[in-house]
Amino acid sequence: RREATAAMAGALDKTKPWSEVDGQHGNRCTLAGHILYLRVAGLWPHAQGARYLLHTVMVQLCAVAYIAVGVASIYTARGDVDGISHTLMHLLEVVSGMVKAGLFFSKRQSFYRLVQDLDLMVSEDWDRPELVSARRWARRMTVSLTAYIYTLILLWLPAPLLAGGDQKLLPVVQIEGVDWSLWPGAYAALYALQCSVLLTQVPVVIGLDCFFVAAMLHVAALLQLLGQRISGLQVISGSVADLAGDVSLKRRQVLYAELCTCIVNHQKITKYLRNLEAAMSTMVLVQLSTNMICLCMGLYQQIQQGEALSEAAYSSHWVGAGAGFQRALCIVMARAHKPLLITAGHLYPVNTAAFVALMKASYSYYTL
């Protein structure tokens, strides 16, 4: 009965946030920094439930208001393809963050179990160089990526105010046809809204991605340690053991027990990877789809403007301009007809067809 009670308590702990059970493993949580990052995003629960709920609701409500402003911006653009594409790319990032947050809330028990299971697997080898290196790389990756993105955002947000001029502009999403000098309160509110959404959505979008990458780095370190243990099973005092005759029965049993332990650890790792894949697969698909849509819109603008260059050259006043001018203009028109391509590593063209093929392959993999 006591063992059954302990088992039930252990199972319950795996469904609790890390903050409720952090004392059970010596206050050492493998993904502690990433959990703190998700708390800033309003995803991972705080100790105070009311404050956590208020924080989460405010972050998501600001995102909804930002999307409403974006829809109004698209409506007022009235056929401005560049402006609509610019607004859509920003809206897709915010929508991606909201979808990922919703997926996290629907699977939060799975995330709690992922943290607890990873802590249990690394607890015996916490100080091994492989795991120390994994923690260091995960921390550096998260800090450097966050610092880079926040630096760009903080440089961009005050730009409309520093630029001055008669026309007041918003940081990212513009609403055409509105004289903001007549509505200073609304301008200040929209400016603050866009700033707050950009600053609060970074931990949502980046935090979950860094969480997954950090977990995979630690799993890779665990697999490396497991490989070292398996390769060292046959080594005794620096010599290769002859399991057929020279090694005693007791030593054979010890080696077999060690091998069984390695097999059990490998099963734990593979099970953890399956759980990690179940938690992250949909989020990765959302992120991949969002990035591809944004890139495709950028490629569409690039191709459209490139083709329009030939028409612009033909529309110029070339009649009577001289043979030299006309020959040079023909060269420009001929060059404009050549598609403008971006390549990946000078090996593969980055165009709409390539993204469609990548989308099909990614969706097929996701389905399998």
UniProtKB/TrEMBL annotation:
Lineage of producing organism: Eukaryota, Metazoa, Ecdysozoa, Arthropoda, Hexapoda
Record key words, sorted: Cell membrane, Membrane, Olfaction, Receptor, Sensory transduction, Transducer, Transmembrane, Transmembrane helix
Gene of this entry: OR59
Protein name: Odorant receptor 59
Transmembrane residue ranges: 52-75, 87-105, 145-163, 204-226
Compartments, as annotated in UniProt: Cell membrane
Keyword hit for Transmembrane helix: yes
Entry GO terms, CC: plasma membrane
Membrane topology type: Multi-pass membrane protein
Pfam families assigned: 7tm_6 (PF02949)
GO MF annotation, one: odorant binding
Organism: Schistocerca gregaria
Domain of life, per lineage: Eukaryota
GO biological processes: signal transduction
Keyword DNA-binding: no
Chief localization: membrane
